[in-house]
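Practice problem 4.
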């Protein structure tokens, strides 16, 4: 009877401690996540500071913390070679840490995080796994994590600029030297020739001396320089016909388009050149968006205010970082709307279309806008195209 009583007491103690840890393991257990920076560019590293506090007297003999980063972020760990001592970095998305935590104590850790893809990332929770003293029962819970100020840690990864001249070549020079890019605007003080007058040409470009000499209306052709405003169009479709009516099928191609947009914005920022960003995505998440129209296609198009200078460019990059991978209207609908209302989209008669592909519809739009005196230049970030021949008057830059 004595041994039976001892076994019964041990059994009751085991049951009691299992129930105790099941009920109180995650009581008064708090998590804190902080970042060394709120913003970073693609390719940069930030530090993630993590702190787990056990503010109750009950110790945590076994506590496992599982960290999962969102897609686009990676932990940087270093493996050391035992013979050479050389450290080799490797990237992981998932980490598991195991430790014991006494009562009224805390543990702090620091992780190096690399930013791989632009976006807005919220680090708001940690998955904790705990057991009782003997490891007989396992309990897990996803606990919310906040910073010292009570706010959720948010990391904005901005798209990085690339060298446009080194990565893109004009369609006319694909078999020769790579030409230097120019913005699709012209300088009235730098005349490079004349051409026949078109109905949409402004009167102040008419060359009256050449008109009198040839007996027909001629207008000046002006060299392109960084002097006037142009607008930037971002095509959120990766193909002419997408399988999904809202989500592009090739997100990597759209990310490349966003990178090119960021590069163009960075390039013109130093010259304080005004520019708007237009995209066929919903303007609803962006309160600063300028409405194109109250209904129809214009209500579904994102148009930003005018950006000018370095400070405004940072605002534009933050908007690019927050762009959802969705499109609201097809690029065909947007381009048709631009043809119908050209002055709502091209105040100064110049547009750049950054797209993952080029098709015949875009060339037809180019011809329609050119007839109205609006320059349209294409940046194509992939090798996709549905046209056999590009007319010589169409300026297209392909990724090398």
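Answer key:
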């Amino acid at each position: 009877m004595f041994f039976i009583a001892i076994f019964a007491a041990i059994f009751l103690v085991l049951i009691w401690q299992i129930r105790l840890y099941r009920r109180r393991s995650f009581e008064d257990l708090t998590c804190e996540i902080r970042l060394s920076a709120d913003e970073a560019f693609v390719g940069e590293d930030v530090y993630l500071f993590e702190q787990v506090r056990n503010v109750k007297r009950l110790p945590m003999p076994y506590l496992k913390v599982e960290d999962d980063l969102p897609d686009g972020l990676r932990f940087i760990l270093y493996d050391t070679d035992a013979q050479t001592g050389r450290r080799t970095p490797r990237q992981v998305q998932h980490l598991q840490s195991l430790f014991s935590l006494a009562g009224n104590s805390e543990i702090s850790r620091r992780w190096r995080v690399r930013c791989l893809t632009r976006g807005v990332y919220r680090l708001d929770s940690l998955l904790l796994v705990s057991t009782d003293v003997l490891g007989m029962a396992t309990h897990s819970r996803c606990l919310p994590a906040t910073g010292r100020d009570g706010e959720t840690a948010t990391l904005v990864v901005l798209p990085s600029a690339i060298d446009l001249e080194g990565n893109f070549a004009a369609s006319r020079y694909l078999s020769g030297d790579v030409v230097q890019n120019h913005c699709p605007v012209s300088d009235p003080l730098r005349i490079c020739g004349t051409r026949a007058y078109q109905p949409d040409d402004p009167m102040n470009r008419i060359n009256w001396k050449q008109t009198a000499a040839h007996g027909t209306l001629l207008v000046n052709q002006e060299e392109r320089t960084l002097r006037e405003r142009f607008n930037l169009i971002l095509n959120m479709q990766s193909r002419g016909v997408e399988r999904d009516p809202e989500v592009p099928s090739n997100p990597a191609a759209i990310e490349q388009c966003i990178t090119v947009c960021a590069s163009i914005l960075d390039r013109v920022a130093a010259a304080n050149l005004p520019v708007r960003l237009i995209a066929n995505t919903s303007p609803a998440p962006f309160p600063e968006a300028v409405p194109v129209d109250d209904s129809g296609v214009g209500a579904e198009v994102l148009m930003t205010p005018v950006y000018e200078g370095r400070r405004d460019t940072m605002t534009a990059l933050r908007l690019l970082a927050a762009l959802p991978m969705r499109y609201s209207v097809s690029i065909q609908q947007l381009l048709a709307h631009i043809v119908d209302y050209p002055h709502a989209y091209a105040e100064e008669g110049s547009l750049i279309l950054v797209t993952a592909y080029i098709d015949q519809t875009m060339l037809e739009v180019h011809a329609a806008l050119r007839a109205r005196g609006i320059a349209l230049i294409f940046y194509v970030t992939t090798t996709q195209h549905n046209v056999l021949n590009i007319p010589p008057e169409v300026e297209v830059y392909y990724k090398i």
